[in-house]
Amino acid sequence: MNKITQLFNIKYPIIQGGMIWNSGCKLASAVSNAGGLGLIGAGSMYPEVLREHIQKCKKATDKPFGVNIPMLYPNIEEIMNIVIEEGVKIVFTSAGNPKTWTSFLKEKGITVVHVVSSSVFALKAQDAGVDAIVAEGFEAGGHNGRDETTTLTLIPMVKEKIQIPIIAAGGIATGRGMLAAMVLGADGVQVGSRFAASLESSSHDNFKQKIVEVKEGDTQLTLKELAPVRLIKNKFYNDIQELYEKAPSKEDLVQLLGRARAKKGMFEGDLDEGELEIGQIAGLIHEILPVNQIVQEMLADFEAACQEKAKFEF
């Protein structure tokens, strides 16, 4: 048992990222049943839809699962109350101040984890009383840190500063990546992109197919003036770049982004006009697989890498 398997009472220290438009009850329950920790992504759900997914997840698995809640959510109080009413035991928070909700959730007996992109925010999360943090490097898909700190440098810098368990995220889709993160000081890993390209992901088949076609260099971090986001270079991305050439105001960018771009791309499968959020590691993802197979392949790869490590002794 390591700190993360103990904290969540799971078999393997593999956490599924609570990605919007990908992380419904089907994906979360499949990851939990495979021995990891599945997360329902509340960021793309109306409150009652979230309740429905929590209830279905409870029926689909008897293993621990959690809910990922971006704190920018407009219905945040309603969301938190649903989580408590439905007896959710694990909450991952992101995109906001961890002090706002941590003590409220902890008083209800909930394990709280906060997602950070720097050691400064990691310290704030620890001070707020969270049980663990996710340290996410800028290789990750979707919304991201402004500092562009890579996972390779972020994990040891966070490890130097905090005492609570660390979950590494950003650029991890293989067992070798998992071992590398743990050697750097992580106690477990959070995996997003690899699970987005799973049979159980709730995203559109067009998006899943696009993920496996992505090559090195096909994603980019952009829209820093609003909230930095890593996405696949498509027509929408090119439209952003054209607008940047005209020195746009923040309002111009907001107007171009419009509403529901991520839903259009990832959930409805519009590969031209949609926002296709995925991490740099997509260049290593070559097929859409069932969750159980993904987890087993990661574990086999982890074991093989551990055995190979002996070759590097001097």
Automatic annotation (TrEMBL):
Keyword Chaperone attributed: no
GO molecular function: monooxygenase activity
Keyword Oxidoreductase: yes
Gene3D superfamilies, alphabetized: Aldolase class I
Pfam families per the UniProt record, alphabetical: NMO
Alphabetized UniProt keyword annotations: Flavoprotein, FMN, Monooxygenase, Oxidoreductase
InterPro entries: Aldolase_TIM, NMO
Name recorded for this polypeptide: Nitronate monooxygenase
Species this chain originates from: Flavobacterium psychroterrae
